Each structure stands twice: as structure tokens, then as C-alpha cells.
């Protein structure tokens, strides 16, 4: 178990370092840095000013030095300064995290509480009208772009209340909290609940084909006991892994949904920073996302070991 | 015991459906949804091919006099803020979605297959490196990676295709690699080796064809997701640049302003995206049921 | 025939078919047999001959679709199982009739403790508290000679060896003292050394509990050691039925003879030891497109015109020795 953990953590570290290298150099392979963008607006450029600014931002140094400087800072909790606001990147990013985390948590809750039961029903009633209907609904759920769903919600809101929900980070009333967090979370969670449902269904169908299900029937167990005691206990395990997959899936949904609803979370901040070529923000945000995804997968594997008596990470 | 109509039961099981067309017809009846998906995709492809004949206006022509016109007989889906005909733009938008969908799936798929075959076949350190690179690419959400790629490469159609193709590579290569590893142990591969066939020839002649079914299933499943990613990228303003009529671009952030004043600008492009992706997903699902019986639902 | 009051199982004209996309698949075609209290009936045949489907039909566990029991009757202790509704059938499954499967590795639920799986079987049919049922579970594990039964009851299937798991399966199947036990190739998946132990255990418990046993196997050696009576199945039909002694002394069907000849060192008189094993040429025909006549005719050395034209009826050759073969009288001479 211990050896496995060490191996696993080392692999995570390798992956994270790899991501940092890929992101850092990818962002800098194109000509046109922040200085060009800033000066483009001004029209006339004094070459001396430009060199000055480049020096000030540290982008006159070789890329490798810049990279090592960034990583070195990361280890000390120094994420550098935003090119745009000139504030420490950490100060820019930190306050946005709880907003996105709240949305993501709600969306995940929504996705699991809708997706898992519907997936089970769909599998148990395989081939029935209910199964058919649920499959069509889940597939259409996967086909609707989150941002369009968000826009439709806004359109509906305008049609019904004559106004759009305006984001308030500290909602005063229950209604406001609902508009601020729950509606966007549902928009994001709709897609992932469709994914959860499909994975639960196929996992459940796989289990229902197993020999031990036949054994349970041979004992005289009822359909309910077979489906919910024998099958679900096994089928739920792969569904747990979905939480890991969905961490990545959710972030995609959050990026567009925060943009649609104008929510000042980290996901929308990433898009803004990319547009502004605000490298310190972009690279740190991408690292944050990578850490979240990688740790989500790690936690899922550990959960697996807790729930499945067969798995003991020994090697 | 209730009387059993053997003929009815056998028809239900598909025993009458032998031979080419009867089999196809039977499969279409059995997989109504898949047939519907195929039809949607066919309409979508035909629209893209014959866009010039279907569209009633030039998708790029600006007509300020008729900006933000409501849907009418002249403009079925209204016009946008530049007075461009929304219907014509949606028809032409099919080309972009199709190009991105097919282009990036084919590109990512081909590279993925090559990487997967090499990785599964050579093993050793080549495999190890490919695996770690896959880990890296898969640790980032598809949209994030595609965003960074288009930001780095600049917004243009080929760059969008590339940006969406690259995140597909690890998914495809992992499936190919797993199949290759399993197939390498198969007797017919051993047999081919024993009669002195070269490794490359074995990989291409024996291993690849046998991993094809799961790859086709995977590719169809990815088609919808690539179309959706392009739409998201363009929506965020980092995909297909103006003035080209990408469905996602038509919905770009400014759409939030038109929610109040011109909802047709929001509704129609979204329907186009959803329908195209839905068609691809329906077809992909049915194809998986038919080609991959183990996964059958 | 035997005293009918002693009959545990009386199967008449059982017919189970599968509706597949290549046509109607007659997996069990007009098969009849009986089992007496404490008796062992072996069903023998090659894989695909319908013996496992016969077993699942007795439990009414043939999956529908594609399979369906379309005819006959299955009388268990005087009740026709085919006339029962699903709820009534559930009360009988695992209670009056139980089954042990071929694969002990996959037949136990991997995430439920062994003891709890037996407790479930007990509590489904007996009105007992969990504690009482747990005591019975441990008792059953002791009965199947699992050492430290109380500790093993708390373990998960993966912690047990294949042989141990099959013992646990037997404990579960016998927990409610069924009148009939069906064992579908119970030792095939086990190591040779374990096979004999498990067989001996089943027979011991059968004797102790007076259970009727249907043993499904492809191994005539096992049959010789365990069964009182044998039915031989080929392509979904019963082609021969006899007492073990009569069958081994003088098989009446060329297929049975072929099976015996293809097994090394059959411990039966009347067959000369051979240097080389005789195999039966060809394979079992597709159950979808069966020939009009005898299904074995294409592989049979004795086949004549009539065999291909007409299906032979089951004829009694004395003492309940039944065989369905036009050339039954000549089987002993040739070979």
C-alpha cells in the first residue's frame, strides 16, 4: 500500500511537471507578447519604452530562465504578477476560487443525485419505454452546449421576470442564492448528469450479466433484491470513477457557463486572461486546474480501495 | 402455458433478416434512434455540400438597413446586428462544423492510431514516454487544452482543427494500444510471425484491422464532442474568427445582450449545434450497439 | 418403474428454445427424466448439447429473451414448476431446488461477505433472525468442511481459493435443505486434486441429507463414480438413458459408445483398452438447422439411409435402458 502510494504520488508529480512545461512553452511559441498588445493600442511605440517594459516584466530573459523563475516562485507560493492588473497573481486568483468551487460542488451534487438513480432505473428497465425515454433525454443532454442552455435560461428569465439574474457573491435571500448559484450549477450539472446516467446504466448492465447475479436469482432473491442489493453494490464502483472524469468535464462546462452568467469565478478568469495574454494568470490557472483534476483522480482511486474489498494496492 | 407464436418471436429476434438490404432494413428498424441519427447527419452533410444552393443570401454580406430584423418571409430566421441573414449563415455554418468535426476526428484519430500501434508494439521506453505524454494531455480538460492551443496558434480554421485534434490523440492511442497488446498474444499473430512476416506488416495487416471496430465506435462518439468543442471555442471568441459563420461564434458572448432584444439570434444557432451533435451521438450509440456487442445496452 | 411417491423430480417432454437472429434454436427438445429421493442422475454430453439449458430450465432461470420454455412439465415434489407464477417460483428456488454452478470464481458476489451470502439464502426462505441465520451459515460452512468457519464467514470471496469457494457455493445451495440439487459441471473449473474432494463432498452431503441430485458433466469417469442413472444428450435430445451399470456394460447408442471410446482408460468391462484414443469425427450440428433424421447420423459409422430420413424413437431395451437409434442392436458388435 505504502509503495503504491509513493509510486502514485511520484507519477502525479511527473504529470504536473510535464503540464507546467507544456503550458509554459505553448503560451510563448507565438510571436506577439503582452508588450506588443499593450503598445498596439497606443499606436506609436518608443522602442526604449518597450525594452524597459519587457525588462520590468522579466520577459527579456531566455525562456528557460523564465520557466525556472516561475517554478521556483510556485514552490514559495509566489505566483508572479498579473500583467494586466499588476497585482500579485495569487491575490487575483484566490478570491475567485470559492465561487467556482461552490458552483462545481453544487453541479456535482446535482449530477450525481439525478444521474445515478436514473441510470439504475434505465438499466433495470432495459428495453422498456422508460429506458428508451431516459436514453434519449440523456443523449440530448450531452448534445446541448452548456452555453446555449445558459442563454436559453436567460431568455426564459427575461420572458418570465423581465430581467436577468445578476451575480451577487454574497446572496442576501434564498431566492438570490438560487439565482446566483443554483441555476448556473444546474446548467453545468445537466450535462454531467447525462454523462453520469449513461455510465451508471452501462455499469449496471455489465454487472447484471455476471454469474453472481444468476446465483442470487437461484437463491430465490426477488428482482428488487437482485437489482438493488447484489447489482448496485457492484455497479456503483465504476460510477465513483466518473467523479474523476467529471472533474475535467465540469471545468469545460464551468468555463462557458461562468461566461454566460457573468460569474467572476476562476473559469471565466482563465478565458479573460488567455485573451489578454496575461501569462502569469493563465499558466497558474492551468496548473490549478491540472492539480484539481489529478488529485480528483487520485482521491477516486483511494475511494475505490475503500469501497471494493478486492482492491488492496499492494505492489 | 400461454400459446407462443413462433413466427412472431423469430421475427422479433431478426431471423428473417438475412442478406444485405434486409439486414440493413432490420437494423434500421431495431435501432430507430440510430437511423434517425444517420438521417440527421446525412441532412447535415448535404446541407454543407449544397450550402450555396440552399442559402438565400450571402452569409457574409452586411446589410445595415435590415439589421436585427425579426424572422419573416424574407429572412426566415431573422438577421443579426450587421443585417446578415441568420438562416444563410446557419446553412453555411454547417461547412465549418463539418470540417472541424471530420477534420479533427480524422487527424486526431490517425495520429492516435499510429501512436497507439507503435506504443503497443514496441513497448519499452517508447511506450513509457507515450504513456506519460498521454497522462499529461489527459490531465487537462479538453476545452482548456483546446483554448490554450488556439490562443497559442492563433484563431483560424486549420488551427482550430489542430487544437481539437491533439486532445483526442491520447484517447484514441490508449484504445489502440490496449487492443494491440491483447492482439499480440493472439495465435494468428504468432502464426504470422512464425512464417516470417515483418513486424510492420503484421501490425498493419493483422492487428490494425482487428482493432477497427472499437476505433470506429470511438471516432463516431468523438464526432459530436469535437463539434461541441468548436462551438464552445468560437463562442468564447477563440475559435473561428469573424466574419465566418461558425454556429458557436454566432452565439458569442454578445448574444447575452440579444437575449432581451433579439432572441432569434440565440435560439436558431443553438438548435443547429444541438441537432448536429445529437445526430452524431444517436448514430454513434447505435453503431456501438451493433459493432461492439459486449457493450450492448 | 419406481414407486412414484419416492419421486422428487419428474420432467416430462421438456422443450426449451432460443429465438435467435439465425433462427429457432431447439436447445432442449422433448426431454423426460425422473430423479428419486437420494438418487443421482447424471446428464452427459458434449458442450452445446443442451445439458446446461436443461438445468437452467429446471430452475426456470433461462434468460428470456432469447430463451423460453415452450412445452412439457417439471413436477418437483408434486408441484408443476412451469405452472407457477414468478413469486411462487422464487419461494421454491434456493429452498426446494438449488443449483451449483461451474465457475466458483465468478458465481459469488465479490462485494458481499461469504457468510452474508449464505445468510441471505437462509432468510429468504426461513423466518429467522439475522443472528439465527448467521449461526446456520457457520454451521453450513462447517458441514462443507471449511476450516475455521466462523472466520471464513466474515471473509470476501476473493480471499478464498477456488475449491473453498465451491464449498461455500455448496453450503449456500444446501442451506435450506432442498429436495433437489442441480450441479452443473461443479468440478470442471477446479484443479484435478480438488475435483475429487468436491465430488466426494457433494455425494456425502447428498447421502446425509437425502437430496436428489442432477449432476451435469461431460466426464464419463465422474459419472461412473457417482451416478446411479445416466441420460446422454445429443443436439438437445435425450439419445440414451440407463442405469450406470447397464450403460457402461452395453451402450446402445453409437454416440455413447463414441464418448466412452474417446475417454482414456474407461473403467468398464467390454471395451478393450486401446493404444490410441478414438475421437468422434465431426462436430455437433448447428441446433438451428438440424437434419430431418437422426442428428448424429452425419458423424456415425453405423449410419444407414433410414437414419438420415427418420428420427429414431426411444426404444426400451429392457430394464429401463432407453436408446434412440435404428442400429441400437448392432452397436455392441461394431465399435
TrEMBL record, chain A:
Primary subcellular site in the record, as a coarse category: membrane
Membrane topology term: Multi-pass membrane protein
Q: Which domain of life is it from?
A: Bacteria
Do you know which PROSITE patterns this protein is assigned to? ABC_TM1 (PS50928)
Q: Read off the CDD domains from this record.
A: TM_PBP2
Q: Which residues form a coiled coil?
A: none
Q: Name one Pfam family in it.
A: BPD_transp_1
Q: Where located?
A: Cell membrane
Alphabetic keyword roster: Cell membrane, Membrane, Transmembrane, Transmembrane helix, Transport
Q: Where is the ABC transmembrane type-1 domain?
A: 97-304
Give the residue spans that cross the bilayer: 9-30, 103-124, 136-158, 178-199, 235-256, 285-307
Q: Which family does it belong to?
A: Belongs to the binding-protein-dependent transport system permease family.
Q: What is this protein called?
A: ABC transporter permease
- From which lineage does this chain's organism come? Bacteria, Pseudomonadati, Pseudomonadota, Alphaproteobacteria, Hyphomicrobiales
Automatic annotation (TrEMBL), chain B:
Transmembrane parts of this sequence: 31-51, 98-122, 142-169, 215-241, 261-284
Q: What domain of life is recorded for the organism?
A: Bacteria
One Pfam family recorded for the sequence: OppC_N
Which SUPFAM superfamilies does the entry link to?
Answer: MetI-like (SSF161098)
Look up keyword Membrane and say if it applies: yes
A GO biological process held by the record? protein transport
Record membrane topology? Multi-pass membrane protein
Q: Where is the ABC transmembrane type-1 domain?
A: 94-284
The subcellular localization recorded is: Cell membrane
- Keywords from the UniProt entry: Cell membrane, Membrane, Peptide transport, Protein transport, Transmembrane, Transmembrane helix, Transport
Q: Name one GO cellular component term.
A: plasma membrane
Question: What family does the Swiss-Prot or TrEMBL record give for this protein?
Answer: Belongs to the binding-protein-dependent transport system permease family.
Q: Write down the PANTHER family for this protein, in alphabetical order.
A: D,D-DIPEPTIDE TRANSPORT SYSTEM PERMEASE PROTEIN DDPC-RELATED, OLIGOPEPTIDE TRANSPORT SYSTEM PERMEASE PROTEIN APPC
Query: What name goes with this protein?
Result: ABC transporter permease
Name the species this protein comes from.
Answer: Bradyrhizobium zhengyangense
From TrEMBL, chain C:
Where's it mainly located? Answer: membrane
Could you name the domain of life of the organism this protein comes from? Bacteria
Q: Does the keyword Methyltransferase apply?
A: no
- Provide the ABC transporter domain boundaries: 9-260
CDD domains linked to this entry: ABC_NikE_OppD_transporters
Q: Where in the cell is it found?
A: Cell inner membrane
- Membrane topology annotation: Peripheral membrane protein
Membrane-spanning residues: none
State the Gene Ontology terms under molecular function. Answer: ATP binding
Q: Which UniProt keywords apply?
A: ATP-binding, Cell membrane, Membrane, Nucleotide-binding, Transport
Q: What does this gene product do?
A: Involved in beta-(1-->2)glucan export. Transmembrane domains (TMD) form a pore in the inner membrane and the ATP-binding domain (NBD) is responsible for energy generation.
What NCBIfam families does this protein map onto? oligo_HPY (TIGR01727)
Q: Which family does it belong to?
A: Belongs to the ABC transporter superfamily.
Q: What is this protein called?
A: ABC transporter ATP-binding protein
Amino acid at each position: 500500500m505504502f509503495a503504491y502510494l509513493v509510486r502514485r504520488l511520484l507519477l502525479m508529480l511527473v504529470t504536473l511537471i510535464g503540464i507546467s512545461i507544456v503550458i509554459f512553452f505553448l503560451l510563448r511559441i507565438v510571436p506577439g507578447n503582452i508588450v506588443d498588445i499593450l503598445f498596439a493600442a497606443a499606436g506609436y511605440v518608443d522602442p526604449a519604452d518597450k525594452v524597459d517594459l519587457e525588462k520590468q516584466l522579466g520577459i527579456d530573459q531566455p525562456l528557460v530562465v523564465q520557466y525556472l523563475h516561475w517554478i521556483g516562485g510556485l514552490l514559495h507560493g509566489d505566483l508572479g504578477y498579473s500583467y494586466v492588473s499588476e497585482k500579485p497573481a495569487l491575490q487575483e486568483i484566490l478570491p475567485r476560487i470559492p465561487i467556482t468551487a461552490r458552483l462545481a460542488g453544487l453541479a456535482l451534487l446535482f449530477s450525481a443525485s439525478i444521474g445515478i438513480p436514473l441510470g439504475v432505473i434505465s438499466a433495470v428497465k432495459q428495453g422498456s419505454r422508460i429506458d428508451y425515454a431516459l436514453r434519449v433525454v440523456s443523449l440530448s443532454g450531452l448534445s446541448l452546449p452548456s452555453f446555449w442552455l445558459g442563454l436559453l435560461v436567460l431568455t426564459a428569465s427575461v420572458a418570465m421576470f423581465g430581467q436577468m439574474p445578476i451575480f451577487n457573491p454574497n446572496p442576501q435571500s434564498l431566492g438570490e442564492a438560487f439565482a446566483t448559484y443554483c441555476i448556473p450549477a444546474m446548467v453545468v450539472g445537466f450535462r454531467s448528469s447525462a454523462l453520469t446516467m449513461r455510465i451508471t446504466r452501462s455499469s449496471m448492465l455489465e454487472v447484471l450479466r455476471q454469474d453472481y447475479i444468476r446465483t442470487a436469482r437461484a437463491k430465490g432473491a426477488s428482482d428488487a433484491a437482485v437489482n438493488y442489493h447484489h447489482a448496485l453494490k457492484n455497479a456503483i464502483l465504476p460510477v465513483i470513477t466518473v467523479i474523476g472524469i467529471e472533474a475535467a468535464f465540469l471545468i469545460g462546462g464551468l468555463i462557458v457557463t461562468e461566461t454566460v452568467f457573468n460569474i467572476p469565478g476562476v473559469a471565466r478568469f482563465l478565458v479573460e486572461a488567455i485573451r489578454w495574454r496575461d501569462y502569469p494568470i493563465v499558466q497558474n490557472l492551468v496548473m490549478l486546474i491540472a492539480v484539481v483534476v489529478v488529485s480528483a483522480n487520485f482521491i477516486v482511486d483511494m475511494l475505490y480501495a475503500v469501497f471494493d474489498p478486492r482492491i488492496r494496492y499492494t505492489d | 402455458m400461454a400459446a407462443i407464436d413462433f413466427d412472431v418471436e423469430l421475427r422479433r429476434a431478426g431471423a428473417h433478416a438475412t442478406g444485405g438490404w434486409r439486414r440493413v432494413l432490420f437494423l434500421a428498424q431495431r435501432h430507430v434512434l440510430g437511423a434517425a441519427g444517420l438521417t440527421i447527419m446525412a441532412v447535415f452533410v448535404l446541407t454543407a455540400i449544397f450550402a450555396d444552393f440552399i442559402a438565400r443570401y450571402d452569409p457574409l454580406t452586411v446589410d445595415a438597413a435590415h439589421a436585427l430584423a425579426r424572422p419573416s418571409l424574407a429572412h426566415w430566421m431573422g438577421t443579426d446586428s450587421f443585417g446578415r441573414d441568420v438562416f444563410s449563415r446557419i446553412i453555411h455554418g454547417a461547412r465549418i462544423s463539418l470540417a472541424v468535426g471530420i477534420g479533427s476526428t480524422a487527424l486526431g484519430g490517425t495520429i492516435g492510431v499510429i501512436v497507439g500501434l507503435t506504443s503497443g508494439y514496441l513497448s519499452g521506453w517508447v511506450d513509457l514516454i507515450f504513456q506519460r505524454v498521454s497522462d499529461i494531455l489527459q490531465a487537462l480538460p479538453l476545452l482548456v487544452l483546446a483554448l490554450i492551443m488556439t490562443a497559442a496558434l492563433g484563431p483560424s480554421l486549420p488551427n482550430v482543427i489542430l487544437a481539437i485534434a491533439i486532445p483526442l490523440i491520447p484517447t484514441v492511442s490508449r484504445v489502440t494500444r490496449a487492443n494491440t497488446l491483447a492482439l499480440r498474444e493472439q495465435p494468428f499473430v504468432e502464426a504470422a510471425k512464425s512464417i516470417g512476416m515483418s513486424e510492420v506488416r503484421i501490425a498493419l495487416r493483422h492487428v490494425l484491422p482487428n482493432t477497427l471496430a472499437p476505433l470506429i465506435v470511438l471516432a463516431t462518439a468523438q464526432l459530436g464532442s469535437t463539434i461541441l468543442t468548436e462551438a464552445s471555442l468560437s463562442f468564447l471568441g477563440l475559435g473561428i474568427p469573424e466574419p465566418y459563420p461558425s454556429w458557436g461564434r454566432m452565439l458569442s458572448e454578445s448574444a447575452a445582450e440579444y437575449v432581451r432584444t433579439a432572441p432569434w439570434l440565440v435560439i436558431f444557432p443553438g438548435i443547429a449545434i444541438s441537432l448536429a451533435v445529437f445526430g452524431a451521438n444517436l448514430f454513434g450509440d447505435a453503431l456501438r450497439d451493433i459493432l461492439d456487442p459486449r457493450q450492448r445496452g | 418403474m419406481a414407486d412414484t411417491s419416492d419421486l422428487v423430480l419428474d420432467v416430462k417432454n421438456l422443450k426449451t428454445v432460443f429465438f435467435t437472429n439465425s433462427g429457432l434454436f431447439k436447445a432442449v427438445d422433448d426431454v423426460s427424466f425422473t430423479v428419486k429421493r437420494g438418487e443421482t442422475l447424471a446428464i452427459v454430453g458434449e458442450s452445446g448439447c443442451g445439458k446446461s439449458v436443461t438445468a437452467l430450465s429446471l430452475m426456470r432461470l433461462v434468460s428470456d429473451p432469447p430463451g423460453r420454455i415452450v412445452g412439457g412439465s417439471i413436477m418437483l415434489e408434486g408441484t408443476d414448476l412451469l405452472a407457477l407464477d414468478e413469486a411462487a417460483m422464487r419461494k421454491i428456488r434456493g429452498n426446494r431446488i438449488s443449483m451449483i454452478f461451474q465457475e466458483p470464481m465468478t458465481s459469488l458476489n465479490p462485494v458481499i461477505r461469504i457468510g452474508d451470502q449464505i445468510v441471505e439464502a437462509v432468510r429468504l426462505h426461513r423466518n429467522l433472525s439475522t443472528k439465527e441465520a448467521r449461526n446456520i451459515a457457520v454451521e453450513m460452512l462447517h458441514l462443507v468442511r471449511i476450516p475455521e468457519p466462523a472466520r471464513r464467514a466474515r471473509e470476501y470471496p476473493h480471499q478464498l481459493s477456488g475449491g473453498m469457494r465451491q464449498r461455500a457455493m455448496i453450503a449456500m445451495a444446501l442451506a435450506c435443505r432442498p429436495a433437489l440439487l442441480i450441479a452443473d459441471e461443479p468440478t470442471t473449473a477446479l484443479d484435478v486434486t480438488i475435483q475429487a474432494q468436491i465430488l466426494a463432498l457433494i455425494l456425502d452431503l447428498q447421502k446425509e441429507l437425502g437430496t436428489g441430485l442432477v449432476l451435469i458433466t461431460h466426464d464419463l469417469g465422474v459419472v461412473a463414480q457417482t451416478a446411479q442413472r445416466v441420460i446422454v444428450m445429443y443436439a438437445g435430445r435425450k439419445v440414451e438413458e440407463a442405469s450406470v451399470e447397464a450403460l457402461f456394460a452395453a451402450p446402445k447408442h453409437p454416440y455413447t459408445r463414441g464418448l466412452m471410446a474417446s475417454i482414456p482408460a474407461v473403467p468398464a468391462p467390454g471395451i478393450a483398452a486401446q493404444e490410441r484414443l478414438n475421437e468422434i469425427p465431426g462436430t455437433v450440428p448447428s441446433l438451428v438447422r438440424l437434419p430431418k433424421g437422426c442428428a448424429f447420423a452425419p458423424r456415425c459409422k453405423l449410419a444407414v439411409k433410414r437414419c438420415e430420413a427418420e428420427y429414431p424413437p426411444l426404444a426400451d431395451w429392457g430394464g429401463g435402458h432407453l436408446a434412440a437409434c435404428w442400429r441400437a442392436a448392432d452397436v455392441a458388435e461394431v465399435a
